[in-house]
Amino acid sequence: MVESPHQLWENCLRIIRNNIDENNYKTWFVPIQIVSYCEDKLTFGLPSKFFYDYLDEHFGKLIIAAVKRIFGSEIQLGYCILDNNKGMQINEKAEQTDERQRNTKKQSNTANKEGAKVVEEYQDLNPQLNYNYSFDNFVEGISNKLPRSVGQAIAEHPKQSTFNPLFIYGPSGVGKTHLVNAIGAKIKELHPTKRVLYVAAHLFQVQYTDSVRKNTVNDFINFYQTIDVLIIDDVQEFASLNKTQNTFFHIFNHLHQNGRQLILTSDRPPHELQGMEERLLTRFKWGLLAELEKPNQELRHDILESKIRREGLKIPKEVINYISENVNDSVRELEGVINSLMAHSVVLNKDIDLNLAKQILKRSVKTDKEPITIESILKIVCDYTGICLEDILSQSRKQPIVQARQIAMYLASKHTKMSYARIGVIIGNRNHATVLHSCRTVEDCIHVDKAFKAKVEEIERLLKKA
Predict the structure, then answer these.
(1) What pLDDT does 88 receive?
(2) Half-sphere exposure (CA, 13 Å, Cβ side) for 54?
(3) To the nearest 10°, the Cα dihedral for 369, 370, 375, 377?
(4) Closest among 141, 247, 226, 234 to 180, alpha carbons compared
């Protein structure tokens, strides 16, 4: 008897259930529905775009392995959003990616043989772009206005651009990958025949190494020289890879001399790229250096509202304000907090509120804390040693009290900007020399007494945690 698609999917679920914990299974797999199954294509229905993104990131490989095992190796996967009445498909699962990569490799190996037919052979090049990254969801602010504006200009007129190469740099998580994918996607939208390719620097290096091993370096170079718009992400990873740099140098020269657009990203400006050949650094500066800075509080707020609106979420304004004020490292971290809020809300079956947001940020984000004060130091020292504040501030010369007082002075000197004189006044009205002597005594003991060192470190840990 032939099993139905639903029965086959139940078999897949048994495999999945054996590989994850029960909470994850109930949260992320029970809601999945089979929408259709025909011609070796299985389409799932999911409750939201957020749900799909989380599944794909955390369980994508497991799903593919289970489905291929039960339905067969030729199965293709698709997903649609059940809440959308149109049933819009948001992603074709990339089982087809391997096939496209095999086609690309096959085309690359025949590049020299086909001569003038090379361009025709490459018309179906997969640009490897993430179309979820677009200008529409790249929120503009002061920190990204220049690179965003230049990116749009390049997308509209890639052949006429004077910003070649466009070198975008900034710390991790500020939107570099988003922006260059948005540029590439817009070029493909406005100029469908343009051969656009996005590739991470690490993948480029792996491809080059593979071509050396297979003695197909010429094919590798010829393939890249056919690209109209080449996007290399995280170019700093070429540092100290001399042979990879040399190959990229020749590709860069060919593309630039033939009016092809190059877009590069890095976590730092060219002059800080150690281990990079000078001739490449010079070329990186030919076009435009555009910095993506960390977003300010206003932009962080706008980014959060944009993501919440796109995902169809309902999050109170006080929660948005709290997150935007306390998460200031990167855009990626902002989005991660929203994803965590959604996941915890689903798992715990509770509404998103300020208390939940505070719990999430406490676990995953370094929030700004009140500066360490002498008062807070004295409190931690008293709590840890069991000596009351009055004794520490007194003139007592008992050894435990003196030691606690000296530790307090040492930590005050280390963690506040107060002078020795000011510290002395606050801690028992001592003079500058007494505080200096206390600090030196503590430092000397730390170097020779492991138990004492552990004691000071534990008090310091409690101080930082408070």
Answers:
(1) 37
(2) 24
(3) 20
(4) 234
